[in-house]
Structures are given as C-alpha cells and as structure tokens.
Amino acid sequence: MLGYNDTQRGDTIIEVLFAVTIFCLVAIGGLSIMNQGTAMAQRALEIGLVRQQMDAQADALKFLNHAYVADYGKRGQATTQWQQIIEQSAVTQAQDFSSVVENDECRLPGASGQAFALDISKLDGNPKIAPTTDVTTYAQVRSKEGVATAEGLWVQAVRSPASDDRPGFYDFHIRACWVSPGQVRPVTLGTIVRLYEPRG
User: Fold this and answer.
1) Fewer CB within 10 A of the end CB, N or C, for the chain?
2) Residue 118's closest CA among 62, 158, 80, 171?
3) Rounded mean pLDDT of 33-51?
4) How far is CA 102 from the centre of its chain?
C-alpha cells in the first residue's frame, strides 16, 4: 500500500509564484500591444481628420482666388477681400518646416500676422483668423458658438519673386502640428498650394 507522500504531491510555493509571474508578464505584454494598437489607430484617424482640415483650407483659398480673378480690374468685394486676407500676410520666405517643432513643442512663424487660417463658414466676409498652437485634440479649425479658432493649423502666404515676363503667384504653405497620444514629439503635416495672380 502506498503512503500519503507517494500519491499526492502538490506544487511548491516557488512553482506557483513562477506560474503567476509568467501569467502576469503575458497579460502585461498583451495589454501593452493593445495600447500600442489603439494609439496607432487613433493617430491614423487624427491624420485623416487633419488632412481633411488642410484640404478645406486649400479649397477655401482656391475659391477666394477664383473670385478675385473673376473680379480682376473691377475692384469689387472679391478684390478687396483677397487683398485684406492674403496680401497683408504675404512674406518672401516661409517658415522652415524643420522649425515647426522646437523643444518638442509646436511653433508658429515668428512675426505676428504672418500666419493665418480661414473660417470657411465666413468666406463672404472676413474669414481670416489668428492661429494658436493650443490644441485640445488634433489640429483643426474649431467653431464654438459662432467663434472660430485655429488650433495647431495655419497658413503662410509666400509671394513669388517679382518678374515682368510671367504672372505673379502665391505659394500657400498649409501646416499642422499637434501632440498625438503615445507620441513624444508632435505630429506635423504640411502641403503647398500655388495660386496665380491674373495678368494685368
């Protein structure tokens, strides 16, 4: 007849602790992978939404330019609006894209008035708004109670060099900068839209 010690052998405390440790490591690794996947999905969504905001700014600029070209020589509202919105902000050189992020923070161009954004709901009036780098979620033009704010999204109008043999143009540098979850450095996006002046 077998004794008690021969037939029933339990796990030692070290074996139990080892099993619990392995389980915890697997659980923590799984949660970490899930968090990374969620952060990547959110970042991809934010990039898509910011690109839509940048496209809206580009479309608004094209609309204003086409209205100005159609009004050229008549000195109507479209010409006045174009001059107020664009020419007052025009610079000869845009902010270097590498300087948009400095010390892990988003930076607007240095001089005041160089950067602007457009409130696309007010294109028939004065849609120009001052941008800010204070971003609550992602770079966008946010409208709250009829007041629009440009959060981490701005435009710089760069005037072409003067030339008599070709029409002038403006390069509009549309930039976005915001901090995304799980990122140490801010996310930046940029595009350029070239719009031509009519020939005189």
Assistant:
1) N
2) 62
3) 87
4) 16
How far apart are alpha carbons 127 and 158 in whole angstroms? 19
Determine which helix (DSSP H) or strand (DSSP E) holds 190, and give its type and residue range.
strand 187-196
Ordered by start, the domain boundaries in the chain are: 13-196
List Cα–Cα distances, 144 to 54, 80, 147, 169, in angstroms. 19, 27, 5, 34
On the 0-12 / 13-18 / 19+ scale of CB atoms within 10 A, 56 is middle
pLDDT, residue 34, reads 82
Q: Is the pLDDT of residue 102 over 60?
A: yes
Q: DSSP label at 197?
A: P
> Which amino acid belongs to residue 109?
P
What is the C-alpha separation between 117 and 131, in angstroms, rounded?
Answer: 6
Mind listing the pLDDT tens digit for each residue in 144-156? 888 899 999 999 9
Best CA proximity match to 131, nearest among 111, 155, 147: 155
Q: CA gyration radius for the chain?
A: 28
Distances (CA, A) of 154 to 76, 79, 100: 27, 22, 11
Q: Is the pLDDT of residue 30 over 70?
A: yes
Distance from C-alpha of 77 to C-alpha of 70, rounded to nearest angstrom: 11
Q: What is the largest CA-CA distance in the chain?
A: 114
Of 36 and 118, more confident: 118
**Dihedral (CA of 184, 152, 135, 37) sign:** negative
